[in-house]
Amino acid sequence: MRLPLSCAALAVALLAACQPVRPAAPAATPVAATAEAAVPADDNLNAVLWVQRTAEYQAAATQTYRAAAALLDRALAEPHWDALVPSERDNAGHGLKPAVVLDIDETVLDNSPYQARLVRDGLEYSDPTWDAWVEERKAKPVPGVLEFARAASERGITMVYISNRAVHLKQATLDNLRAVGLPVADDSVFLGLGTVVEGCEQHGSEKDCRRRLAGRQYRVLMQFGDQLGDFVHIDANTFEGRQRLLEEYDDWFGERWWMLPNPTYGSWEPAAFGNSWKQSRETRRAAKRAALDVAP
Question: How many domains does the chain fold into?
Answer without folding.
Answer: 1
